[in-house]
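thread: overnight batch results

M.L. [08:02]
morning all. the overnight job finished for the chain we discussed friday. pasting input first so we're all looking at the same thing
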Amino acid sequence: MKNMKKILLLAVVAMQTVTNSYAQRSPIGIVSVQDTVKSVQWGIISSIAEEGERGLQLASVSNISAHTFNGLQFAGVNNISSGMNRGLQLSGILNVSSGMMRGWQWGAVNYTDSLDGIQIGAFNVARKRPKGWQVGLINLSYDTIGHKIGLVNISPETTIDVMMYGGSSTKTNLAIRYRNRSTYNIIGVGTHFMGLDSKFSGAVFYRLGQYRQLSPKWSLSGDIGYYHVETFSKNNTEKPERLYSLQARINADYQFCKKFAAFASVGWGITRYYDRNETYRNRPLMELGLTYRIPRDQHDAWQGVWDEKHSKLVFADSTMALPVKKRYWQAAAEVTGINVGVQLFDRYALNSDFAQTTLRSLRHNFTDGMVWDNDFFITNMFAHPYHGNLYFNAARTNGLTFWESAPYALGGSLMWEFLGETEPPAINDVLATSMGGMAIGEMTHRLSLTILDDRDRGFSRFFREAAAAIINPIQGLHRIFSGDAWRVRHDHYRYHDFSRTPIDVSISVGWRYLADDGALFRGIHAPYINMTLTYGNSVDGEHHTTPYDFFDVEMNSAFGGGQPFVNTLNIVGRLWSTPILDKKDMAGEFGIYQHFNYYDAKPIENGSELTPYRISEAAAFGPGFVLSLPQMGGLSKLEQRIFLSGILLGGTKSDYFNVIERDYNMGSGFSIKSKTQLDFGRFGRFVLNAKYFRLYTWKGYENKDLQAYADGTKDLHYLNVQGDRSNAALLVINPVMEMHLVRQWSIVLSGTYYSRRTFYKYYPTVHANTFETKIGLTCRL
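M.L. [08:03]
and the structure it wrote out:
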């Protein structure tokens, strides 16, 4: 309890410091804001300079300058400026200069509107006049006068071909070829390197070559390449687990139409062992295939499609649904009915032991006190918050406001914990059900209303009602029992005003690779579906008192591979905010936000026993700052969000604690989150998410009589511990690149890096990290 008081005190001090830093416009603070920088500006989380100037900007997360900055920007996550004149941007992940960059950008991803300096990173973008150098894995510019050193170099003259072919080396292949004036790069994957009669084997490869155009249709080329080969064989004396191959080719291409071409290749390949100086095989190779040339300038802005679609909708007082009368007692009766219905189903249909309540068990629930329970991670950190959303929406559907509905989520949880089961009431269940239920409940309440339209008829009406009921079951039942589900109206038929509250929804489907213990070729491949949603305006210059009139949601579902169906659910909702910056080219808001984060994965089948990631932030609130720059140079939008939250209940994987159904630690702590979004107009957008969680497990089992619990003398349900005494540092880095194809369709590429370092009081420290990658097709609705 003493430690908890310290955390609460620190949270209050942090919030006061953030607020005071805005009022004092101090060069030093949690979030430092200044008109101009004259020497040094240091923000523990973020530094913001409205007018730029010169000097040194330091921050652990983000530096932002709304005008040209001269000097050094140094940040752990990202640096953003309207331009750099003789300066350096140095960050762990992202650097952005929306104007001229005269100097150096050094980070994983670098972007500038105009370059007269050097970019060094994994991915470099210079929009125009790149007079300097780009050094990285992938270099992209919208002009041809710059200098590029990298594995893939792309300019306006670059032609991009998708290659599909078969051959004697890897039997089936898919690759992308980037052709410049006389050179080209090829990146691809191939299968069955060991032969069609063997088990599956694969390779990733990179080839670099030069070509000569013999005629408009014929070209001749030669290249050398490096292949990394995985045989997926373990402890096999006849077949090595991995190899590498050096290959050289001569290729002839024939372009038989504008988009399609055929090619043939001959060459030689030498395949060797990684672990010893020996050759595995040495032989010639032959390949035949087709190429498809991706057309240029075929992109279209999704926003135009959205505007055209919704400009036809008319919103007026006569079209919007009338407010629902507040029914407090009916809401309470429905919460009670939910618990009674679930309890009877568990007791008689499922015959669950925990539902066999008696007067004696109920008396124990009131006399023995509350505990930290030992249910599965998905039960405590996802199912309970979802169940709380039912209580919450029983009140919301009966006309109650957000804050009026919150006690119903708490009351429903307490009713179930003390009266609904034989197991002792759990502290963590009450926190997760009530606060997590508020986040999921308000999100589903608002989202379901955007679908409904009482003018509709036929299958379209059925589809709307079914979709809304799946999202918000309590509201769906209300509409069925009241007859609203099929009642047709010609006035007061809409439940959401898109003209006042815009919504951006993206649905992605594609393929996912989840690595086992960070291994490049030891993981699972499986399809996925992802939904991202932005509801409302993050910054609009108005004072907000209605909770969740702006929120962000991301949900990811996995199919197959032995992984949980729901493996990611992230929600951040605005509870209150006020504008603190309101200028022509810059707007910012400070507010209080609620957070819900859930990441879950299981150990890879036939791999190591390491759980790739397991993180929960079920109950969290804290201050946040959102900065929006509507248009900067070649960017149609640039937005930076910074959040600091206190975690009342969270969870993470434990390497030692495993009791009943629980293999994770629970605790409290804090989190810092950053989201940077860059919209490139009709080309696409780039999003960078960075999240840091710190969870402290205070209540361990070092003072418990473990032998009594082991031999059954004491009931394990009353062990009452959070897990191993420890503190865990959790880092999630997630870059997302979306490239528009046509209208609202786009290709999305994303990667996520997970890192966990858990410091145990009585056990050795454990450090684990892994990653996952995704490629998919996105439709923005």
